[in-house]
Design goal:
Length: about 475
């Protein structure tokens, strides 16, 4: 995994003031949350609070990236993207201890995690491979994007040939989803090259072409879902209405049961077709309240503010303005609906099959929000992989069928997952850790549908561990 790089020169020149004899300062999470500005940025790692204000503009991963962690405990995100030994560089910024927690926290990394990290690091070193570089993967990004543009153009060119127009619209939806699952997804995890400007450019393209905010997505996905996978109240991907309120679906035993949930395994998958529209509209609410369900948003920079609004405008002009010059509005709406429905289904089913299943764990923190389980072991326990030997599904899911490896090594470009997944599997076997896997994508989707059916037709779990035996 990449180290600090050019930032080491700045770190080596910084010396913390001698505070010998001074009483150690403590921070509650509410106090820490106030230190979230570039000129006064504090980050907590392993219950230690660091004032990184002087390092923000020197951060090799970019100032926007380090500011994602400002004012919060960023332990899991920090350790996912840095070598575990990087902790030593932070000590010169130490200012106190974090004594309460806003989000779940975990024990020190286990031998399993350390061993796995070492083995994967060795794989890249021994084979002289940069984990963020893969030129044929870059070519695939371009291919998907050009294909999406061509399918969009096809809806205009073939608008009077209904079979070709409908196929073009459907393929526009699929290829747009593939752009999101490959280029956009990798960039949101800073896995495309080591250059922050590349991630920023992809973010511009995402906001403008997809119509969804990269800023909001990173908070939901990188700062929320990845560190707190399947933890009720912390993982934005499984947030539902409060336990005493009704929600559109029931995916957790903590939710109340209603008679309509008996049929949710039928109607909920149908509703997944509005995922794209929901995401684009929900961005405005998230940006207004500065919170994505459980996750507080960092203070956006001026460029991030500009991108949010200009991205929405450019997307609307591209998606509706250009076609409106060449076709009647009813065709424009129809082809957009087809594309959005198909793309939303493709994304939603891929996303749901990895975690929202009965086979996965749903960890519960104690009253102090402590999870008595190694974070890496939790990632294995809360995730299910499928069809990892299939070139087709590796390509068409953006390697999200290697979800376990992706959660453990999010900063690695997806094309390397087929090579490091066997390393992860072997390490799991050696440490006696159960690895969830099914052979086909059909089985993976069935696991999700069966989970909806199970929680719709039962008020309480059949066993204490909430798992299918």
């Amino acid at each position: 995994m990449p180290g600090l790089g050019e930032g080491e020169s700045f770190l080596s020149s910084f010396t913390r003031e001698d505070e010998t004899g001074k009483e150690e300062k403590t921070f509650t999470w509410e106090q820490l949350a106030k230190y979230n500005r570039r000129d006064n940025a504090h980050i907590a790692i392993r219950n230690k609070v660091y004032n990184v204000s002087q390092f923000v503009k020197h951060h090799p991963g970019g100032s926007d990236q380090i500011m994602l962690g400002a004012g919060r405990d960023a332990t899991q995100v920090f350790e996912s993207y840095h070598k575990l030994s990087t902790h030593k560089f932070l000590e010169r910024f130490y200012v106190g201890r974090l004594v309460t927690h806003e989000y779940p926290w975990f024990p020190e990394p286990s031998n399993f995690y350390k061993t796995l990290r070492t083995r994967v690091d060795n794989y890249f070193k021994e084979n002289d491979i940069d984990p963020k570089i893969c030129y044929w993967m870059f070519a695939r990004y371009v291919t998907f994007f050009i294909s999406s543009l061509m399918c969009f153009a096809g809806t205009i060119v073939f608008q009077n040939n209904w079979p070709l127009a409908v196929v073009s619209a459907a393929m526009w939806g699929i290829t747009t989803a593939l752009v999101a699952m490959t280029c956009t997804h990798d960039s949101s995890h800073f896995a495309i090259t080591h250059k922050p400007w590349v991630w920023k450019v992809v973010g511009y393209l995402h906001d403008s072409y997809q119509g969804a905010s990269m800023f909001c997505w990173i908070h939901q996905h990188v700062m929320g879902h990845h560190p707190f996978t399947n933890i009720d109240g912390s993982d934005p991907d499984i947030m539902t209405a409060q336990a005493t309120s009704a929600d559109i679906r029931r995916i957790k035993w903590s939710q109340i049961w209603l008679p309509r949930y008996v049929y949710q395994y039928i109607y909920v998958p149908i509703l997944y077709c509005v995922l794209g529209l929901k995401t684009r509209l929900q961005d405005f609410i998230i940006f207004y309240i500065m919170r994505n369900t459980s996750i507080r948003l960092a203070i956006p920079s001026w460029s991030q503010l500009a991108l949010f609004f200009t991205g929405k405008v450019i997307h609307c002009l591209f998606r509706f303005g250009i076609p409106f010059m060449f076709m009647p509005i009813w065709k424009l709406v129809l082809f957009n609906v087809i594309a959005d429905v198909v793309g939303s289904y493709w994304l939603a089913l891929i996303f749901q099959t990895s975690h929202v299943i009965s086979e996965a764990e749903w960890p519960t923190p104690n009253k102090d929000k402590f999870v008595n389980m190694d974070w890496a072991e939790m990632q294995v326990a809360t995730t299910q992989d499928y069809a990892t030997d299939s070139w087709f599904w590796n390509t068409m899911t953006g390697a999200l069928n290697h979800q376990t490896c992706h959660h453990l090594f999010p900063g690695v470009i997806q094309s390397h997952y087929p090579k490091i997944t066997p390393i992860m599997e072997q390490t799991c076997r050696e440490f006696g850790i159960e690895y969830h896997y099914v052979n086909t994508t059909t089985e993976a989707i069935a696991c999700h549908i069966n989970h909806l059916k199970r929680l719709g037709q039962r008020r309480e779990p059949a066993s204490l561990d909430n798992k299918t035996k």
